[in-house]
Every structure is written in C-alpha cells, then in structure tokens.
Amino acid sequence: MKIPITNLADLKKLLPHREPMMMVDSLLDFSEGKATVGFTILKDNLFVANNEFSETGLIEHMAQAAALYTGYKNYADNLPAKEGFIASIKTVSIQHLPKVNAYLKTEVAIVYELMHLTTVKLSIFNGNFEIANAEMNLMLNVS
Predict the structure, then answer these.
(1) How high is the pLDDT of residue 83?
(2) What strands, in cross-sheet order, belong to the sheet with 84-94?
(3) What stretches of the chain adopt beta strand conformation (E)?
(4) Among 44, 49, 80, 133, which is disulfide-ready with 123 (CB 3.0 to 4.6 Å)?
(5) What is the pLDDT of residues 82-124, one digit of tens each?
(6) Contact indicator for 97, 114 with CB cutoff of 8 Å
(7) Strand, coil or helix: what is 42?
(8) What span, in angstroms and rounded, lies between the C-alpha atoms of 138 and 40?
(9) Are residues 84 and 139 in contact, defined by beta-carbon separation less than 8 angstroms?
(10) What confidence tier does 143 reach under pLDDT thresholds 50, 70, 90?
C-alpha cells in the first residue's frame, strides 16, 4: 500500500475497527514515529449531536489515529492488525468541537514504545487551527 491511503478496504487491513466505529478515513503521511491521519465528520456519525462532533468522538478519533499508525507499521513488517485500547489519558485539551462535514487532520507523534505499550502525543487540526490535543498510553491486546 502506498501513502496516501484513502480506500476503506485498505484501511480495514490496517485496523480492527469497523463501521459504525471507524473514526479515520485516510492515512496521509507516515514515517518512523510519526503519521498524519485524516477524517471527515459525517452527519450520521455516532458521536455527532446538534451538528457537532463530541469530545468523546475526538478522543476516539485520536486513539484510532494512533492505531492506524501502528497498523501501518505492522503491515510494513508483515504483521497483522492488532486490537488495542486506551490504557490512560495523561492529558487532553479540547478547544473547539468541529461541525458536521469538517475535515480533520491529526498528527500522531510516538513518544515511547515498549513491547505492547505506546505513549503517543496527538494534535487535531481543522484547517490551520488546532482544535484538540492529547497524550495517551495505548496498550495492544497480547492474546
């Protein structure tokens, strides 16, 4: 697969998530320790209320952006996509809730990786404006 990846079938090879819980729709850039992930908020999204994407949706999108980084890295190493979960949220700041049809670009920066635990910093941009950021610990399912 070549970057950018925008085909849903290809993205499903990299992530265990499926509709209606897919909160990413493109892998725009990838390098060791970094990625840029895209997502368009549609009106039928589970996390849309009153024409806005909720805080919970933004956090889930950030976690899936990090999962997409890991999924592509594993794909490049001929390993399967693995399920994971948010082990902890160290910090989160949400400055603005985006509206339906907004296009988000999320920057993923790996801070630390050890076996099945990853610490990641994430920043969501709507246009040129950062609307949210977080630092999370993510754990891959080992079974």
Answers:
(1) 86
(2) 26-31, 34-40, 103-114, 117-126, 129-140, 84-94
(3) 26-31, 34-40, 48-49, 52-53, 84-94, 103-114, 117-126, 129-140
(4) 133
(5) 888 899 999 999 999 999 999 999 999 999 999 889 999 999 9
(6) no
(7) coil
(8) 23
(9) yes
(10) low
Give the chain's mean pLDDT: 94
75 contacts: CB under 8 Å, gap ≥ 6: 1, 13, 14, 81
Residue 8: predicted pLDDT = 93
> Which two three-digit tokens encode residue 108?
């993923």
What structural domains and CATH numbers belong to the chain? Answer: 8-140 (3.10.129.10)
Asked if pLDDT for residue 140 goes beyond 90, the answer is no
Instruction: Report yes or no on whether pTM surpasses 0.90.
Output: yes
20 cis-preceded (ω within 30 degrees of 0): yes
CA dist., res. 10 & res. 4, Å (int): 11
Write the single-letter amino acid at 91: T
